[in-house]
Amino acid sequence: MNYNTKRRMVALLAVPALLFTAAACGSDDKKKDEAVVGGVAEVKGKVGEKPEISVPKGGKPAGKTVVKTVSEGSGSPIKASDFVRLDWTVEKWGGAEELGGTWAAAADGSTARRQSVEQVGKQSQQLPAKVLDAVKGKKPGSRTLVQGTAGDLIGENLNTSAGLATTDVLVWVVDAVGVGTVDAKAEAKGEQAASEAGLPKVEAPSQKAAVVTIPKGVKAPKALEQQVLIKGSGKKVEAGQGLVAQYTGVKWEDGKKFDSSWDHGGATAFQIGTGSVVAGWDQGLVGKNVGDRVLLVIPPSLGYGASPGSELAKNTLVFVVDILGAV
Description:
The chain is mostly beta strands and about 325 residues long. The protein contains four helices and 16 strands. The strands form four sheets. Strands 3, 4, 5, 6, 7 and 8 form a six-stranded antiparallel β-sheet that branches. Strands 11, 12, 13, 14, 15 and 16 form a six-stranded antiparallel β-sheet that branches. A hairpin with a 7-residue loop joins strand 9 (about 200-205) and strand 10. The longest helix is centred in the N-terminal third of the chain and has 7 residues, at about 5-10. The chain is elongated. The two termini are about 20 Å apart. The relative contact order is 0.17.
């Protein structure tokens, strides 16, 4: 999904919309853990648990941005272009109040938590570029602290109307929960089955958006319809994982494409099974396998119908989704 489409599709978690108005641009490829004697927030707690952030009493924050490994994971270091599933929180220095993050309880009371799924080096709508870039070179399972002024970390996209100044110091704690390496141009492989009666016909040329033909004279289904067109051999997708996928979406009503990952650089990632995307994706993709190509026909009630302001609120949506990986 491109940035604008992702804003439509993803039901945003408790992100710091109060902090920035759009994803901050730019990154620093020279980020390293800084050896700073004082003025750095202390972080307690294990990866997988909400961190406790405290600052030295009467102490002043360091005068420069600090990136520090709080606890180190294991495995190969995270590379640029890797897909990562993250837990994170952010507080103002000395504020002791969470300004945003993934640790908020689910609205439905379940234990599922909406996490941020990003591609390192790409624009994020959840995290400033300098914060996301800080996980590069860290190992999966690491907890990283990023501390700096709002002006440095967020820059020109800082939402000053929320009462934050460019000189205010922010403390981010980011856990790399899941990591995966997937080629952005990857696609499902194998013999594709013909669409079942009453479902759209799908032609999927390599490295291009799928061509979807709506059956003439057939009314849009009122319930979710799904079919696995190519059967993959990978692991089963579980709720809460970060899903890496190619997709194409068209409207049943006129057959017109409204978006495709192929039009925007290739594979994208999102969390599945936690209400972070439209319900039709959660219901239709959890339980499928990595390597599957899935045809979904989603009625408005399971699409954007719950978002009356969306331009697609009244449309039945047809998606062709290649599941490339789960992190």
